[in-house]
Amino acid sequence: MNDLNQTYSLSISYHQITVYAGNEVPPVIDWSDDDIRQGFATGGQGVSFEGINNGKASIMVTLNSKETPASFDRAITVPFTHSSDQVHMTSVMAQVLSFSIPKGDYQLTCYTSQHPDQDLYYFDFQTE
């Protein structure tokens, strides 16, 4: 189990990060042309966000944060409901990061920020 408000490393592949609830098997989410244009796709109790680059990235997860990142290139907010005790994050063929997020309905915002050495993804779960 990973702690909130800490920075973790994740290998991004196929330009996507999937956030999902339930067991540790990520859902298979097919991207349509509209999904690609909007920067995310949903399905199977999860959402995949478009990754900036493939390679190592820094991941931070917060719950009801009052602050947004100082700078970011893109912010996407989607509804996210889960009835599990954990939320997982991964990319294709990458390790799974697991976070203890209480069951419920959230607005999940993914902030992305491109950096020369390693891209940053900041995920904030806000209760509705």
Description:
Helix content is 5%, strand content 52%. The chain has a single domain (6-127), classed as Competence, DNA-entry nuclease inhibitor, ComJ (Substrate Binding Domain Of DNAk, Chain A, domain 1), CATH 2.60.34. The chain has one helix spanning 33-38, and strands at residues 7-12, 16-21, 40-43, 46-50, 55-63, 74-82, 86-90, 97-100, 104-113, 119-127. The protein is mainly beta. It has a five-stranded mixed beta sheet, with no helix packed on it. The protein has a five-stranded antiparallel beta sheet with strand order 3-4-2-7-8. It is built from one helix and ten strands; from the N terminus they run ββαββββββββ. This is DNA-entry nuclease.
| Structural class by secondary-structure content | mainly beta
User: Would you list the SSEs in sequence order as H and E?
Assistant: EEHEEEEEEEE
Number of strands: 10
Main sheet: strands, sense, barrel: 5 strands, mixed
Overall mean confidence score, pLDDT: 91
Low-confidence stretches: none
User: Any idea what the shape is?
Assistant: globular
Ends distance? 24 Å
CATH topology-level fold name: Substrate Binding Domain Of DNAk, Chain A, domain 1
Number of helices: 1
| Backbone CA Rg | 13 Å
